[in-house]
Design brief:
The complex is a heterodimer of chains A (177) and B (278).
Chain A (H helix, E strand, L loop, with lengths): L2 H22 L13 H13 L1 H18 L6 H18 L8 H23 L6 H7 L1 H23 L4 H4 L8
Helix pairs in contact in A: 1-2, 1-3, 2-3, 2-4, 2-5, 2-7, 3-4, 4-5, 5-7
Chain B lengths: L1 H17 L5 H78 L8 E10 L8 E4 L12 E4 L2 E9 L4 E5 L7 E5 L5 E6 L5 E5 L12 E4 L3 E2 L2 E2 L7 E9 L8 E5 L9 E7 L8
Antiparallel strand pairs in B: 1-2, 1-14, 2-5, 3-4, 3-14, 4-5, 6-7, 6-9, 7-8, 8-13, 9-12, 10-11, 12-13
Classes of the chains: A mainly alpha (177), B alpha+beta (278).
Chain lengths: 177, 278
């Protein structure tokens, strides 16, 4: 099989599993009023490893999956995660390149940005959302948990999603002639 | 690419939001959700033990914190119950005082200044209390102090807002008294122990019986008058003894007043001007 297909398949499986875990397990582990978002952590990792386009596409389909499973308005989570994936990818390519704190900084920024923009989007759709809960009660513990899990998820994602380099593939040197 | 995804998202939001619940987009969403449901169930079953463990731990912490909260609430409620009982008892005492003030037994020509007992002597040297009424309320020295159960004592010193009252059980107290049934006269003093009283100086000619009610004599002689108005109950006779060696009868009296549990009293203030001594 084509290596790029394998890579994309790995990303797709990664996003799928993350989305499934998020809606079935992680979202229900509520500590101090907030919960972690492993899909967001996975998207940050994908975007930092694979770039903004991969981050946006993964975010779109991961968010769409969440919308489908949770029977929410289609496209809401897809839009938010797509934008988050794209911004993270751009950040990784420019300012955050080769910086050790880039993953955690991206996780922090994206967590806050998604909370704020999600509140605005739900407000535009006329849904009753408590700003206090979204921006204070749930955001602060959620941000803490995301930052806590950001490191392990980043390490796991980089290990799983890293593209093999030429040096990885060559196992021996064959002398010609 | 991002623009396409954003547009696609917005189109999905618009279509999904505006569409009826039985529309094709919702049907597709339901169909995909149905396909994914077994996976969700499988993940949920795998995750259930972990979630249960988390829930158990969380409940344990919640139970502990709830236990502490309930303990604190219990203490608070107990204090409230005590306060309520105290208020109830105070209410009963005050009502009894009010009934007494409006009853015929209340001395004529006197007004009752209601006062709370605010202090008791720390030692056992003298039998006194401090009440929350003073000269500002019209209380003067030597004013009698009563409750609905009977005579308490007299005011010995007064400040603006408080007065010190010498109880009937104090060694220095002495009240001229009468047997209500026979009008046998005597002087009530402190008894040999505790709150007991003695009706002293009762002639052997007088017939005093156990159960007789002893009241204040309230005598008047010219410009001089007793400190106590006539007719205030002091107590009941519990023992009568006649010895040949004694000049007077031995009459023991028990007051109906619980001197150690006083809460509120009336200080009697004369409505007339005090007689001037010659």
């Amino acid at each position: 099989m084509n290596p790029s297909v394998n890579d994309n398949l790995a990303v797709a499986v990664f996003v799928f599993v993350a989305a499934l875990l998020q809606v079935t397990l992680v979202a229900s582990i509520d500590i101090a009023g907030g919960a972690a978002d492993v899909l967001l952590l996975s998207l940050v990792a994908i975007a930092l490893v694979r770039g903004p386009v991969a981050g946006a596409v993964a975010g779109f389909f991961g968010g769409l999956l969440v919308d489908v499973i949770t029977l929410d308005t289609l496209g809401v989570a897809a839009l938010l995660y797509a934008l988050a994936g794209y911004w993270t990818g751009r950040y990784g390519e420019t300012t955050g390149r080769d910086r050790a704190h880039a993953p955690l900084l991206a996780v922090g920024v994206v967590t806050i940005a998604i909370a704020c923009s999600g509140l605005g989007l739900h407000f535009l759709l006329g849904e009753d959302v408590s700003a206090r809960r979204a921006l204070f009660d749930a955001l602060l513990p959620g941000l803490a948990f995301n930052l806590l899990l950001g490191g392990p998820v980043w390490a796991l994602s980089r290990r799983l999603l890293r593209r093999p380099t030429v040096s990885d593939r060559v196992t021996e040197v064959q002398l010609l002639g | 690419m991002l623009g396409t995804l954003v547009l696609l998202s917005l189109a999905l939001i618009t279509a999904s939001f505006r569409e009826e619940s039985g529309g094709p987009l919702h049907d597709a969403q339901a169909a995909v959700a149905g396909v994914l449901q077994p996976l969700e169930v499988a993940v949920e079953r795998v995750a259930r033990p972990f979630r249960d463990a988390y829930g158990w731990t969380k409940d344990l912490f919640n139970a502990r914190s709830e236990n502490e909260r309930l303990k604190a609430e219990n203490e608070q409620l107990q204090q409230q119950v005590i306060q309520n009982e105290s208020a109830l008892q105070e209410n009963v005492h005050l009502k009894a005082l009010l009934d007494y003030r409006s009853s015929p037994a209340f001395p004529v020509d006197y007004k009752g200044v209601s006062a709370e007992v605010i202090a008791r002597p720390s030692g056992s040297f003298d039998q006194t209390i401090v009440v929350s009424a003073g000269s500002d309320d019209g209380v003067v020295a030597e004013a009698p102090v009563v409750t609905s159960d009977g005579l308490i004592g007299t005011v010995t010193s007064v400040t603006g807002g408080a007065a010190r009252v010498r109880l009937l059980t104090d060694e220095q107290s002495a009240v001229s008294a009468l047997d209500l049934r026979t009008s046998a006269a005597g002087i009530v003093r402190h008894g040999p122990s505790g709150d007991s009283l003695v009706l002293d100086r009762v002639s052997k000619k007088e017939v005093v019986q156990v159960g007789d009610e002893i009241i204040t004599a309230g005598w008047r002689s010219g410009p001089l008058a007793s400190l106590y108005p006539k007719g205030i109950k002091i107590g009941d006779v519990t023992f009568v003894g006649r010895l040949n060696t004694d000049l007077y009868q031995q009459v023991q009296v028990v007051s109906g007043v619980d001197f150690s549990g006083l809460d509120s009293v009336f200080v009697l203030v004369s409505k007339r001007r005090a007689p001037e001594l010659p």
